Amino acid sequence: MECRAIRDPLWKHIYLPEELAAALTTPDFVRLSRIRQLGPAELVYPGAVHTRAGHSLGVYEIARRILERLELRGADWITPTGRISWYAAALFHDIGHFPYTHSLKELPLEEHEVLSGRIVLEDDIARCIAKAGGDPHQVAAIIDTTIPTTDPQTLFYRRLLSGVLDPDKLDYLNRDAYYCGVPYGIQDTEFTLDQLQPHQQKGIVLDSTAILSVENLLFSKYLMYRSVYWHKQVRIATAMMKKALYAALSRQLVSGEALYQQDDQGIHRLLQAIPQGAFPEIVLAQGVAQRQLYKVVAEIKFDPDNSFHRQLENLQLRNEAEEQLAQQLGIPAPHLLLDIPERISFESDLWICGEELPFSQSSTVFSSQTVASFTGSLRKIRVAIKEKDNLHNTDKIIARFFELNYN
Q1: pTM (global) more than 0.90
Q2: What is the 3-state secondary structure (H, E, C) of the chain?
């Protein structure tokens, strides 16, 4: 099969079959080159300007290496069609992704995996997959787990694409660390890949000697969340875009369909086109575009036993709480926001051979208590406002607000 060599700063030469490489010029894939992988993280890490397109190529390369290792170790159920479908699923897994990283994750929109599954069935990309020898419908079913399937090979690929040691994480942790200039996400990728063993039902399994590979990845994930993904300023910029978009969607000033095909700049143009009188929340999106972020005036450790904290995980209830607190502070509601990081897991059910246990129950240092402490140290409720000048007793009012709502 004739391949095109693409130079990548992480994985060096990536060899992509010409038929799949033809899809890189389709409008859907080109859009990914205009979406930054880490959204507003460049406000903190100026080098973080890498794109979803570059990440997608990296995931393809790691997926190719994973399957190569598994076939050498006995995965004899891999068919030529399944192999190409797997490559395509890795390459196009993010093709339906929204701009601004996960700003839109809580909004009432379709999951990006569902959109990706739909896009790979459209004429241009489906034709490229078929010409390469893959099955577009199998590709869609690998990416979008809501598509019913009983095909053992498709289910095998699903487990490979979404797991602890999946190609997505192995690329984004390394790639994000590289472009941010931090060491925390770096993985010993070749060592990790050499530890993988195929299992048709479980996807991959590991020998107990390879537990450190999983530990390294999980700890790297924790450090990257702490230092990059959930950095205070990155969180606030993300929350500002989320609040602006939620307001526009709630008032039917924009539709979900209008958001699906946007890139980082297009989403700003879409919001700017709304008459300002109908959309005072435009100040939030403008602040992000002009790098004028809201100021954090309070941080409260998220308490899962506090029912008010749990209520704030609901975007509508959070919006109502923002309006109440803004009123008590005497500022316009669009000038205040509450940010709560979503729930995240550091647990793993990856099967450890020899010990005959899932990773979380094996001889790992990642005990349930350790995992809980990781999550607990990361999740903080933050109160941020547009301007804190001329405000009095802010700390007391916010503290009182949370005390009165404590249940």
Answers
A1: yes
A2: CCEEEEEECCCEEEEEEHHHHHHHHCHHHHHHCCCECCHHHHHCCCCCCCEHHHHHHHHHHHHHHHHHHHHHCCCCCCCHHHHHHHHHHHHHCCCCCCCCCCCCCCCCCCCHHHHHHHHCCCHHHHHHHHHHCCCHHHHHHHHCCCCCCCCHHHHHHHHHHCCCCCHHHHHHHHHHHHHHCCCCCCCCHHHHHHCCEEECCCEEEEEHHHHHHHHHHHHHHHHHHHHHHCCHHHHHHHHHHHHHHHHHHHCCCCCHHHHHCCCHHHHHHHHHCCCHHHCCCHHHHHHHHCCCCCEEEEEEECCCCCHHHHHCCCHHHHHHHHHHHHHHHCCCHHHEEEECCCCCCCCCCCEEECCCEEHHHCCCCCCHHHHHHHHHHHCEEEEEECCCCCCCCHHHHHHHHHHHCCC
